[in-house]
């Protein structure tokens, strides 16, 4: 991936399946997103999954996607991560990374 490509802003929606509720998954996701300088949101769903949206430079978003797929919070157990609606954006839609209740 070239530097320019890595700097392109993208937006991607995600949903994480597994034991991801009641294990501080949202808190860790928010912290990791902020650490990478990403913006977006994360929330629990009624189906027992965690969903949200990531926005930022492609290279950072890829880092976060890998984190969501393989790491998560210490007590979580991720079965799979689903990513969709990926698109290039011209500007960020959010000012920070929020936990949505």
Automatic annotation (TrEMBL):
Q: What is its EC number?
A: 3.6.1.7
Tell me which residues this entry annotates as catalytic: 26, 44
Q: Which GO terms describe its molecular function?
A: acylphosphatase activity
Which reaction(s) does its UniProt entry say it catalyses? an acyl phosphate + H2O = a carboxylate + phosphate + H(+)
Q: Where is the signal peptide?
A: none
Q: Which InterPro entries match?
A: Acylphosphatase, Acylphosphatase-like_dom, Acylphosphatase-like_dom_sf, Acylphosphatase_CS
Superkingdom of the source species: Eukaryota
Q: Which UniProt keywords apply?
A: Hydrolase
Where in the numbering of this chain does the Acylphosphatase-like domain appear? Answer: 11-101
A Pfam family matched in the record: Acylphosphatase
Query: Can you tell me which family this protein belongs to?
Result: Belongs to the acylphosphatase family.
In terms of PANTHER family, this protein maps to: ACYLPHOSPHATASE (PTHR10029), ACYLPHOSPHATASE-1 (PTHR10029:SF21)
Q: What is this protein called?
A: Acylphosphatase
The species is Odocoileus virginianus
Supply the source organism's classification. Eukaryota, Metazoa, Chordata, Craniata, Vertebrata
By which gene is this protein encoded?
ACYP1
């Amino acid at each position: 991936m070239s530097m320019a490509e890595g700097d392109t802003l993208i937006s991607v929606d995600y949903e994480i399946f597994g034991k991801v509720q009641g294990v501080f998954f949202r808190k860790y996701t928010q912290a990791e997103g902020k650490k990478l300088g990403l913006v977006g949101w994360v929330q629990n769903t009624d189906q027992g999954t965690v969903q949200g949206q990531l926005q930022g430079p492609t290279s950072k978003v890829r880092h976060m996607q890998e984190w969501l797929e393989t790491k998560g919070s210490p007590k979580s157990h991720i079965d799979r991560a689903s990513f969709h609606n990926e698109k290039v954006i011209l500007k960020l839609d959010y000012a920070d990374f929020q936990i949505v209740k």
